[in-house]
Amino acid sequence: MSADTPLTLPAGAAADWTISQGWENYTAEDHQVWLTLYERQAKILPGRACDAFIKGLDALDLHGAGIPDFERISEKLRALTGWTVVAVPGLVPDEVFFEHLANRRFPAGNFIRAADQLDYLQEPDVFHDVFGHVPMLTDPVFADFMQAYGEGGRRAMKLGQLHNLARLYWYTVEFGLMDTAEGLRIYGAGIVSSKSETIFALEDPSPNRIGFDLERVMRTPYRIDDFQQVYFVIPSIRALLEASLQDFGDIYARLPALPDIPIEDILPQDRLFTRGTQRYAHRGGRLAAA
Ligand SMILES: [Fe+2]
Question: pTM of this prediction?
Fold first, then answer.
């Protein structure tokens, strides 16, 4: 994930912001945090995460003990789809992020959250980045989509359209749902790496669940601080790739004149999977629950 505010290259990082993962520096407690998070997700993801994600976990052997060594998972990933995982100290500037994706490198934070903050994340850590994102990169079609997104990001920066493109990433790579013959499944990294959002995204009556439409998504703001009020449902990974390969020029030409769509609105042309009650958001979300 990239950052909205200017960042400074940290001491010791290469020009592309990569650092050594420093796998040997993780403590027993760090590995235990990974295991705790891993085990609680492993219990709830079967039947909720899409097949590509579950297969990816197996293919990368992420079931093993503790925080994975990026070199080992990169070896497996490179053989499958040509992607690798590189360590970064945290959020990186947009242009650096896109450059990595366009070259099939996924930048992952090397630190892990504290044991007493399992559900609190200020910045994406190694569990979010590796457990959440990397399994989907074993799917050849999703792997192509992520590269295309990186290339699209470089173009969007030149055109001043990053704001709209970031919504595509948010509502797919981070918080996407997929329609399957077995029902709705999750594939977004922000969901699959979170116990509470795994349940909320699929089973809570509160959020709207709406069929994916590229331009519609680009006009929809999102929440960074709480569960989503709307999730967008792709019909397949292939459909997502195809949407991302179209020429965005026409959409970018139209968007400045079009207003944002309020986050909980449902449009007449929306393909509606669930009309949410919005009860969770209207009751104050996490603020009310705290
Ligand atoms: Fe992420």
Answer: 0.95
